[in-house]
Write a structure and sequence with these properties.
It is built from twelve helices and eleven strands. The chain has helices at residues 16-24, 44-55, 72-81, 101-111, 142-149, 161-166, 178-188, 223-237, 242-265, 269-286, 291-309, 315-322, and strands at 3-9, 31-37, 60-66, 87-90, 96-97, 118-121, 123-126, 132-134, 157-160, 193-196, 202-205.
């Protein structure tokens, strides 16, 4: 069973080798690895070509290409166009995969006789101070989980090629939270899903300046809001009951509140206040200003907001229950 792994790379000369080595260490074969240099200005392209020259084999095909449009979405779409496998994985150039990751995906596909569209895996987040924490991982209420936790982050799933193509691919015009927006579209297409529930097999680097994700929100203000607005549009256009749509749109507003709380946490009240006001007003309107809203939901929501500002965990799980 052939898998294609697609990795966009930008100015990762000193870091990408560890990612490449983790792909090379995969126990599953055959593999196709597509490396897309996205306008690097350092020696990244040379590192990629050297890796391909050393390791390209009949059961481990390595392709190096360049994408001149400088967005991760464009680079991933370029790599997807070269994918030959029925199953495709996207990965980031500063993260690592455990040796058994692809084999775990393949095992799930075999167990389901190929009647799958998407397989999700557990992951561990690495923070600037070196601490590690497992990312939230759920096997039910997945659309709500995606809205709150982005379980279908770039490097956390394998997807059937035809299913992915039918959803429209990566939004090359969306610079921030593009994997959150894509994951939402994938789920709204009702995939047949399976989950790798053993030990986490993906290591996601949130290590400050070296991380693709980065460690601050205010420096990219406006990008996150674009993704949230687009996600809300997807929900309004999706075929679902009024009750479902109302719930999911409330969760979108909660994500907007979390972003506002992050801005406040970073000392940017000028960004936080209007965004928080917008989200609270939308939530109030969704409850028609009812007594339930005034006496229960609003106070709890304010509490959750302050909890995020304080850097405490667990608020999203509470929000998943109350909305």
């Amino acid at each position: 069973m052939l898998f294609t792994i697609i990795i966009p790379v930008y100015n990762r000369e000193a870091l990408v080798q560890r990612t490449l080595d983790s792909v090379l260490a995969q126990t599953h074969r055959p593999l196709q690895l597509v490396l897309v240099d996205n306008c690097s200005t350092d020696g990244t392209l040379q590192v990629l070509h050297q890796f391909a020259d050393r390791h390209d084999e009949p059961d481990f095909r390595v392709t190096v290409v360049q994408e001149q449009r400088h967005t991760a979405g464009a680079a991933r779409n370029r790599g997807f166009n070269l994918a030959r496998a029925e199953w495709v994985m996207f990965f980031d150039s500063d993260d690592e995969m455990a040796p058994g990751l692809v084999e775990a995906y393949a095992s799930q596909v075999r167990q389901c006789d190929g009647q799958l569209d998407l397989v999700s895996a557990r992951s561990v987040l690495v923070f600037p101070d070196g601490t590690r924490r497992e990312a939230p991982f759920f096997t039910s209420d997945i659309l709500a989980v995606q809205l709150l936790h982005s379980q279908l982050a770039t490097q956390r799933y394998a997807v059937r090629r035809d299913f992915f193509a039918a959803t429209g691919g990566w939004n090359a015009d969306l610079p921030g939270w593009n994997d959150w927006e894509l994951g939402l579209r994938l789920l709204l297409a009702h995939p047949r899903m399976a989950f790798c529930q053993d030990a986490p097999m993906v290591l996601i680097n949130h290590n400050g300046k070296d991380s693709i994700t980065g460690s601050e929100f205010h420096t990219r203000a406006g990008q996150w809001e674009r993704a949230i607005n687009l996600g809300e549009q997807h929900l309004w256009l999706a075929a679902m009951s009024r009750r479902e749509r109302l719930r999911y749109c409330r969760l979108v507003e909660y994500r907007r509140l979390v972003l506002a709380a992050q801005y406040e946490r970073e000392g940017r009240d000028d960004l936080a206040r209007p965004l928080a006001t917008q989200a609270f007003e939308a939530l109030r309107h969704s409850y028609n200003g009812s007594l339930w809203w005034r006496c229960w939901v609003a106070p709890v929501t304010h509490m959750l907001y302050r909890r995020v500002v304080a850097g405490k965990r667990g608020a999203a799980r509470i929000a998943q229950r109350i909305f």
